[in-house]
Fold this sequence. Notes:
The chain is mostly helical.
Amino acid sequence: MASADVPAPDAPQDTSRSPVRGWLSVLAVTLGIFSLMTSELLPVGLLTPIGAALDVSAGTTALMVTVPGLVAAAAAPLVTVATGRIDRRVVLTLLIGVVGAANLASAFATSFAVVLLARFLIGVSVGGFWSLAGGIALRLVPQRHVARATAVVFGGVETASVLGVPAGTLIGDLSGWRTAFAAVGVLGLMSLTCMIVVMPKLEPERVMTLGDLPRVFRTHGAVRAGITMTFLVITGHFTAYTFVRPLLQDDGVADGMIGVLLLAFGVAGVCGNFIAGVLITRRLRQTVYGIAVLLAAAMAALAVTGHGVLSAAVILIVWGLGYGAVPVTFQTWILNAAPTATEAASSLYVSAFNLSIALGAFLGGWAVDTVSTVSVLWTGGVLAVLVPPVIRRFNP
């Protein structure tokens, strides 16, 4: 993601740095991103019990996804610019500490207002941490290991998206939703401790300005295509996926099986990530098209098929394969689109991604409360099938 301290590719490397300490730092940052993104998306699998406990509707409960998404979208560039002269270790540890505390506050909250305040703080941390962490590998490991270390850091985003939420849902089903939030809070504090212990000081080396953002969007057609397809796919996905629990319940799936089905979705997502990692080196555009097809097909199938646990599992596996391929594919598209302005382009991507999460949850909440629960599937599918013509329009 965007970073205010990414040195030029040919910048001299610190030959005195410890490879072992560098990799431990990379793993600590990865754990931080995993806890951040799991925190942002955890309510997806727990909407029903949270709404029941706090006496709010499913659509209102979805604000737990909308609020941090909106805040993270704004925080991604703003935190990067505002903290441009502060030691990166200090900024990252502060942000991850806020996440740990906010999740623990959610676990003990007795009103929805307190929960939304905690979700606001999580949004600030998600946007700021994610925007800074993407380029951190350049400062932590020797040059020859940078690509691998960066992939590990981004793996925290992907793993949280496809495994963190299902695991949190399973914990919530077994021990209650408050336990799930407390567990993620403790995970964030563990990451904080690890970063304090193993990360070296990381003084800022370069400051991104807000003026870089419109410039890279205006001058690179492929960036415009990437941001637009991110908007369509992520908005469509979260319009539907935010309400996957009530959708499955309406189809007669028992509560105890929903966490298991979401774990199947997560495992499929990890597979989709690795498959995409192989395909995108030579077939990037085709991989994007394949993602759109898989997501649209899965949503349509869930909308029209009367099914039990087995058929729901098959559909969620297809859905998981498609969505699991999104982060690595779209991030690669953005980096390829603006090779001389990767910081600004990546910051735009982080903002678009999180804004789309918020918009999807909001749009889905409105559709559930005013139309029907199944309408979110049709809305998400339509947005997904718009991706190929959009790409041809902005990046022929």
